[in-house]
Structure formats: C-alpha cells, structure tokens
Amino acid sequence: MKYVLAFQGSPRPKGNTAQLLQRALDGASELGAKTEMIHIGSLKMTGCRGCYSCKRKGKSFGKCVLNDDMTPLYAKIEKADAILFGSPVYMCAMTPELKMVVDRLFPYLTMDLGSLLKKDKKTALVFTQNQKDPALFEWHFNMTAFMLNTIGFRTPEILLSVDTIGYAENDPDKFAGVNALKIHEEKQKFKAATWNIDLDRAYKLGQDLMQ
Ligand SMILES: Cc1cc2nc3c(=O)[nH]c(=O)nc-3n(C[C@H](O)[C@H](O)[C@H](O)COP(=O)(O)O)c2cc1C
C-alpha cells in the first residue's frame, strides 16, 4: 500500500492550506493510499542548528542529532511514496513552520549536493496567498521546488490558490480596514467561483501522486 505524507505549514489547522492538502490526501486515499497529515505548528521542534553533525564522517553522517518531534518524522519521510509540502505565503515566502521542516531535511543533502534519500518520491507543493496575482511569489515557489529536488525529491508539482479568504475577510465588521466590506464582497464572489475548482485541482494532484 502506498503511503502519502503531507506537511501542513499553516498555523491554522483548518485554514485554506489544510483544506487543500486534505483534498489532495483524499484523492490519494481514493486510489488506495494510506495518508497522513502533519500539522507542523503542533510539533515541538526547532530549525536546523547548523552543527553539520549530519555531514561528519561516522555514525552521525546523514542523520540529524537533534532529538525532538521532527526525529520520528525522518522515518516517515523515508518510507513515504509521495510527499506534499503546504504553506500559506507569509511575507512573500513559506511560513517559518514549513521552512523549519525544509531546513531539517539538510541531513539528506551531501556536501557535493548529492542526496541520501533513496526512494524516488513524487512530491507536490501547495501554496495559498491572499493576493490575486499568481506571478507575485512564483520565484519563491520555483526556488522551493528546486531546493526540494536538490535535497532528493522528484521535482514537485506546484498548486497555488490565490485571493484566499482569511480571518478578516470572513468577518469584515470585526476588523479594521479602509475597505474591508468591499474586499469581503469581492473575495466572497471570487471564492464562490474558484474555491471548489481549487479543491478539485488538489484532489487531482493527490491522485497524480499515485501514478
Ligand atoms: C503574517 C501573515 C503574512 C502574510 N503575508 C502574505 C503575503 O506576503 N502575500 C499574500 O498574498 N498573502 C499573505 N498573507 C495571507 C495568507 O497567505 C492567506 O490568507 C493564506 O491563504 C492563509 O492560509 P491558511 O488559511 O492556510 O492559514 C499573510 C498572512 C499572514 C497572517
């Protein structure tokens, strides 16, 4: 049975990113996969400490010497047939939660930019952003895809959902903002037209990961 793992990088466990990742997992599950979603925000872990123990000759080679909630996830990553990495855009980039996990993949990367990851995993990136223009952070999505490929994953498919609805747009009366109501109406209209399409794209992405 194939195993598909998703790293959910939004601090909001039921937000846009989590919903899209769940649909992708549903798509994989429909085709027989065992799936698992990791909400990074609920883990007790740190980023990479830059100790380079994972690059030293000897027993720490290829391993992270930190011992925290990321530790058991290495085995899951190695076992997985496909992996999704999801994040909202925060200040033009992935969230610190997801970045922390990506940085902790450093043990898989050798000093000559080879990879110790043995399994040929299909990979996907799921990003959500408040702004409308899908090209705004394309550079970041592409660099993340490039980095994951260098670490040893197959070049990821990238799914982006734009003009998403967050807290404030959902309940404009409670939030300060010059044109909150106008934004609310425009966003609700956009969401009504596109959100189900994005969920369907996510479902198909999950199914593609199983091919
Ligand atoms: C701290 C913070 C920074 C953000 N920065 C950006 C940004 O740079 N560009 C953008 O389009 N949206 C930005 N957003 C909006 C989120 O990306 C958007 O609402 C996203 O869909 C939230 O995903 P979630 O529901 O999974 O948490 C930001 C939101 C927060 C809270």
Round the Cα radius of gyration to an integer and report it. Answer: 18 Å
Strand order of the largest sheet: 2-1-3-4-5
CATH topology: Rossmann fold
What is the class in the CATH system? Alpha Beta
Shape: globular
Given as residue ranges, the uncertain stretches (5+ residues, pLDDT < 50) are none
Largest sheet: 5 strands, parallel
What's the N-to-C terminus distance? 13 Å
User: What's the SSE pattern?
Assistant: EHEHEHEHEHH
Task: Count every helix, treating DSSP H or I runs of 4 or more residues as helices.
Answer: 6
Helix fraction by DSSP (H/I, runs of at least 4): 25-40%
Which class do the helix and strand fractions yield?
alpha/beta
The CATH homologous superfamily is termed Flavodoxin domain
Please name the CATH architecture. 3-Layer(aba) Sandwich
Mean of residue pLDDT?
93
User: Which ions, cofactors or small ligands are bound in this entry?
Assistant: flavin mononucleotide
User: What kind of oligomer do you see?
Assistant: single chain
Q: Which percent range describes the beta-strand content?
A: 5-15%
Q: Based on DSSP secondary structure assignment, what is the total number of beta strands?
A: 5
Kindly give the count of domains: 1
